[in-house]
Amino acid sequence: MLPSQRKIRVLVVDDSAVARTFLINGLKAFPNIEVVGYAINALDAKTKVLRLHPDVMTLDVEMPGTSGIDFLSQLLPEHPLPVILVSSLNLRVFDALAAGAVDFVRKPDGTESRDSFLRTLAQKIVVASYAKVTPCRRAARPAAAAPAPVAALGHSGGVDLDHTIIGLGASTGGTEATLEVLKRLPADIPGIVIVQHMPVGFTGMYAQRLNKLCAMEVREAKNGDEIHRGLALIAPADLQARVVRMGSRYTLACQPGEKVSGHRPSVDALFTSMAAQVKCHMVGIIMTGMGRDGASGLLEMRKAGAYTIGQDKDSCVVYGMPGVAQDIGAVMIQASCDNIAAVLMQHLKTGK
């Protein structure tokens, strides 16, 4: 971690002079951030990284010549540097995250004030300065690629799979981590609700991407959606998602509301609702992310009888949320990102 008294050194990379000026001048207002330079393209950025040794880099995904994605694939294996993507509403941001970027923000488009955008970016820069960078974690499969076959669960001797609900929460580093879990699960997995901290507009695209790469159906949730086997619901950005019991059925309420644990949607809001509402078997999974969102809710789930899994420190981009959950006793078992699916499947098959 960076010493608390040291400013975070940031390199701004954007081919637009207007965007660069806005970012540089805006970030200068934050006393814990120092903009040490800027670059106008990938070649310029590589030179500046070698010369300036920034702690964090902001990067436009779409640049002339070498794209941001190709640049990351070339740079990060040699220079593992935390990168925050500054992107318009663009599906390619997820390819850049797969190439090793740790997080992203949406470029101002008139729906958000510039001050709010800069505050969000500054917060993400601070989080990124603590991130563990794993370059090119996995090459993204082509968008049209069929999911790898995973053996169906069928009827288990462990838990009642038709009456089981799984909640999963993640933040920084979670887009790719969640994919790694879901793509190892079968099409007939019990219903899953996912909260991933993400800007408005991206949760729908993220759900579409997962739907193409995973065996189960994945889609962005709508208010009142029923949670059922074979379906994974992504909580929409800027709405709180809570599970609601209706007799023997369970639906997801996606509604405006105050932030919980600093977030909307909030993992704590989801997990707390599950602890209070779900009377059938349930599983809670907490993954990579800064802060403590989800930790208290996961503890409530465990006290209510849920089986709880936390991502381990070595495989987290940021061991914040799962670390707090572990410390307060909310986690029954820790597992690496690559092994969480196997731990979950073993539990569903055996009840252990």
CATH-level-2 architecture of the largest domain: 3-Layer(aba) Sandwich
How many domains make up the 3D coordinates?
2
- Quick one: overall form? elongated
Number of helices: 11
The level of helicity is 25-40%
Helices and strands, with pairings:
Blueprint: E1 8-13, H1 17-27, E2 33-39, H2 42-52, E3 56-60, H3 68-75, E4 83-87, H4 92-98, E5 103-106, H5 114-128, E6 164-170, H6 174-182, E7 191-196, H7 202-213, E8 217-220, E9 225-226, E10 231-234, E11 240-246, E12 249-255, H8 267-277, E13 281-286, H9 295-303, E14 307-311, H10 321-327, E15 333-335, H11 340-350
Parallel strand pairs: 1-2, 1-3, 3-4, 4-5, 6-7, 6-13, 7-10, 8-10, 13-14, 14-15
Antiparallel strand pairs: 9-12, 11-12
What are the defining features of this structure?
single chain; 352 residues; alpha/beta; Rossmann fold; 2 domains; seven-stranded parallel β-sheet; five-stranded parallel β-sheet; 11 helices; 22% strand; elongated
Quick recap of the structure?
This protein is an alpha/beta fold and 352 residues long. The protein has 11 helices and 15 strands.
Describe this entry's structure for a reader:
The chain has helices at residues 17-27, 42-52, 68-75, 92-98, 114-128, 174-182, 202-213, 267-277, 295-303, 321-327, 340-350, and strands spanning 8-13, 33-39, 56-60, 83-87, 103-106, 164-170, 191-196, 217-220, 225-226, 231-234, 240-246, 249-255, 281-286, 307-311, 333-335. It has 352 residues and is an alpha/beta fold. Strands 8-10-7-6-13-14-15 form a 7-stranded parallel beta sheet, sandwiched between helices. A 5-stranded parallel beta sheet has the order 2-1-3-4-5, with helices on both faces. Strands 9-12-11 form a 3-stranded antiparallel beta sheet. The chain is elongated and about 60 Å long. Mean pLDDT is 90; it is low at 137-144.
